[in-house]
């Protein structure tokens, strides 16, 4: 394998990461082996996002400190980071926030599917130590899986956004067999359901995932009903239950209010603002 040194690094360490993200990393590796590379513009975008995330790693606003936990977590900056962060960076940020006397509380903004186990216990300990000197609130915004939950669990409090997705406690290690023409990947795991969904799906797994889908669907229906000012039963009955419609039928069903182009809407808003300004000028003139 051309990228054998990468495969060795990938398979030489356990991962506290979601199966989906690990499979993506493996897929990128196998794609590289076949000559498929990430476009240069995408690499630049990933690099820019990484810099932006690192700038948020230990920011502060007055008495409030912000620590970001984003992307794939590695021990040190690595080829597998995908624009994410390293445990070493997180550990140092936690220590700096603990020592900063101008900061009284810390918020952790967490959006990660996990990463390498190396350096993870040390970073978690630093967050727990930070918690001993000032309150730390971890916000699941919107993913805190595996290694990311390992870190979030050390906070004084964990809060989740309404769409937050949390869990995947377990460890997984990929084994790539490239002895044949087509590479084969299997997983060694700890955590009963850690590789669930990457094997033949069991009835139990399908029932679990159906519950998650149903919960998001219920939230969706409830939000649409609130926004449109109708009851959930009407949304369920008239809004398609998963189907989409062109504008005419969507209007008939009450899903939209009217049909207009973007330019028309912009022009309407500008005319409305102009009319409002004119009214305000007349009122002001009447007072003078």
What is the topology?
Blueprint: H1 4-11, E1 15-17, H2 19-33, H3 40-55, E2 59-61, E3 64-70, H4 87-99, E4 105-112, E5 114-116, H5 120-133, E6 136-145, H6 147-152, E7 157-160, E8 165-167, E9 171-177, E10 184-190, H7 203-228, H8 232-238, H9 247-252, H10 262-287
Parallel strand pairs: 3-4, 4-6, 6-7, 6-8
Antiparallel strand pairs: 1-5, 2-3, 9-10
Helix pairs in contact: 4-5, 7-8
- What is the overall number of helices? 10
Here the CATH topology of the domain at 4-197 equals 2-enoyl-CoA Hydratase, Chain A, domain 1
CATH superfamily of the domain at 4-197: 2-enoyl-CoA Hydratase, Chain A, domain 1
Overall shape: globular
Number of strands: 10
| Portion in strands | 15-25%
Task: Give the second-level CATH assignment, the architecture of the domain at 4-197.
Answer: Alpha-Beta Complex
Instruction: Look at the helices and sheets and give the structural class.
Output: alpha/beta
What is the residue-averaged pLDDT? 84
CATH class descriptor name of the domain at 4-197: Alpha Beta
Let me know the largest β-sheet. Answer: 6 strands, mixed
Low-confidence stretches: none
N-to-C CA distance: 84 Å
Could you tell me the radius of gyration in angstroms? 25 Å
Residues in helix, % = 40-55%
Helix and strand pattern = HEHHEEHEEHEHEEEEHHHH
